[in-house]
Amino acid sequence: MNPKEFKRRRRDLMRMMGKGGIAILPSAPTRLRNRDVGYAYRQDSDFYYLTGLAESESVTVLIPGRAAGECLIFCQPADFEKEIWDGKRVSPLAAKRDYGADQAFSIDLIDDQLPDLIQQCERIYYTMGVHPEFDKRLINWVADIRQRSRGGVHAPDEIIALDHILHDLRLYKSRSEISAMRKSAKIAIKAHERAIQRCKPGMHEYELEAEYIYEFRKHGVDCSYQPIVGGGSNACILHYVDNNQLLVDGDLVLADVGCEYNYYASDVTRTWPINGKFSIPQRELYEIVLEAHDAAIEKVQPGNHWNDPHDAALRVISKGLLNLGLLKGKLQSVIKSEAYREFFMHRTGHWLGMDVHDVGDYKVSDQWRLLEPGMILTVEPGIYVRSKSKAPARFRNIGIRIEDDVLVTKQGHDVLTAGLVTNPDELESLIGSLSI
What we know:
- This protein is of the alpha+beta class.
- 37% of the residues lie in helices and 18% in strands.
- It contains 13 helices and 21 strands.
- A hairpin with a 2-residue loop joins strand 2 and strand 3 (37-38).
- The longest helix is centred in the middle third of the chain and has 24 residues, at 175-198.
- It is elongated and about 80 Å long.
């Protein structure tokens, strides 16, 4: 992404902060998987959003109006010996040259320099609770400044939640961000197509998962969340991730799998018959979910509120379940009593961006947020009939979800993942069409 994009983001944030404020953002820490083996490093989304710097042991400081420079980065110094083992570091020199810092210092100097910067400001903008260890350091710095107040040292008057203003900026995607999310969606489409085409009875769920991972790695990306590949009754477990059972002839498989391109996520779900042919009850439920999916997407319009797509999907699903006899009563009473929740127990979508469940308030002043151009959300209705359900036996152990990524535009909406088939007839023709 162009360095000017990160500079613009910092400028927008500092304009909202105003003079007298200081924003402090620590990088994500490294985390051990076991003993001395670490997990693959992934930078904190807020930190990356403002810098593009994907390195641990770094801290970004923004001080609007500071004459000596508004953007400061503390990062690891160059170290020839350590770089032999772990690779080249982004040194303070590189932080200024490549990442737009006005000043950059070794992270080893932060205890000496950051408190001096803090005491020159009236307000601290910081997100508490995300990085507990750094929380303690910040609190200690502020406490120390306050203890020295009798000597004329000024302590900031308040600590303000940085995420409140920063996350509102992240909710509206720029052209560059939308471009990255289109690329992420395009790769996810290819991966889903590959998995559908390779699917056949007798495979294990993890073999199908491997098809996704192969396609992702071929494009130089990784999963944006732990893949869900659930055959049969496993499709009724919303966050199923074991992915270790056989795919059985006659069952459906639900695959909820997305990737992350340049820190931007896709989130896509498709459900299809493992043997390539929907049974009558499977198709009846699938067509209800597809109708709900389409109705929800139609409600993704600027000026509609956040809950409109959910309300549309909910109405279609409740009506469909009534028509099939899985629910009893009148439509309005089923919705009011939430009787539908036995079969449809989650919301119809969420914000999407750098995080799969992306930042941004869903309500403003206790009212559903209005949809505006630049917002991106998922649309993902589903029906899940578990084995212990009192529904007719022919519907049990069927789980279906259809999920797409949708951009709100000035004219309406743009489905970023529209290239991936949802029509049941087209799905059937695609399943198992490529041999492994």
